[in-house]
UniProtKB/TrEMBL annotation:
The lineage of its organism: Eukaryota, Fungi, Dikarya, Basidiomycota, Agaricomycotina. This is G domain-containing protein. GO terms for molecular function: GTP binding. Residues 15-138 form the G domain. InterPro entries: GTP-bd (IPR006073), P-loop_NTPase (IPR027417).
Length: 242
């Protein structure tokens, strides 16, 4: 067990948040660090134009949280998709080769159906990081979910697995800013979300010693995944945050 003094002497752990443009990556960064330092937008506009880092201490451990350019930005005519993906691939590859990628956070919006979810997972986790770095998923935009926010994961976890996506952990959250939480219920959900994400990072960052999923999918798995991708547009339930 690592003591508090040993934790404080550890170098900062690199936590890379990736995902499509407009899913709330920058808002997630602000939730984690506890301030509005990362620029956000209330509409579907890509705010992050380059990879940016923010430092935070969680459980006496230092973390470097990386906000990255939104993937598939070209879908909405913000940035060409290749322009967004190329620097992130280079950035991740460089850090991974130096052994400096400690955790990947896949940010997914609960209400957004997309056919790129599996492709991004395979590219940035299985291919670039070779399945050797823990990856977790954070589901955003659940502030209006009926019942517990985690119910969304209970309903949809198996669909991720069927599409070949496995995670070391998950969090179902709201990333609304404090100024947007106009009720006691929303403020509590936001506070709960911050605690959950902090715990997720603290318990999974730096896990080593086993590959959580196989690196490159074989031909049969690739065919299976290809056949399942088309179902994503239905199981992400775009009309409801649940």
């Amino acid at each position: 067990m690592i003591s508090s003094s040993e934790k404080s002497r550890e170098p900062a752990h690199n936590v890379i948040i990736f995902g499509e443009a407009g899913v709330g990556k920058s808002s997630l960064v602000n939730l984690i660090i506890g301030s509005n330092r990362a620029e956000t937008s209330s509409d579907a506009v890509a705010c992050t134009q380059r990879n940016q880092e923010y430092e935070v201490t969680i459980d006496n451990r230092k973390f470097r949280i990386w906000d990255t350019v939104g993937l598939d930005s070209g879908t909405f005519n913000w940035l060409p998709a290749a322009f967004a993906e190329r620097p992130l691939k280079h950035f991740l590859s460089k850090l991974f080769k130096k052994g400096e990628v400690d955790l990947l956070i896949y940010c997914v919006r609960a209400s957004r159906a997309t056919r790129a979810l599996v492709r991004h997972y395979q590219t940035f986790y299985s291919t670039i990081c070779e399945g050797a770095v823990p990856v977790v998923v954070v589901i955003t935009c659940l502030e209006n979910a009926t019942g517990e926010m985690d119910n969304w994961w209970t309903k949809n976890e198996e669909n991720f697995r069927r599409c070949g996506m496995s995670f070391a952990g998950h969090a179902c959250v709201t990333t609304l800013g404090e100024e947007q939480c106009d009720s006691a219920a929303l403020r509590e959900r936001r506070a709960c979300s911050r605690r959950i994400v902090h715990a997720l990072i603290s318990t999974t960052c730096g896990l080593r010693g086993s590959r959580l999923v196989s690196g490159n999918a074989g031909p049969s798995q690739q065919r299976s995944i290809a056949g399942l991708v088309s179902s994503i547009v239905t199981w992400l339930r775009p009309s409801s945050p649940e």
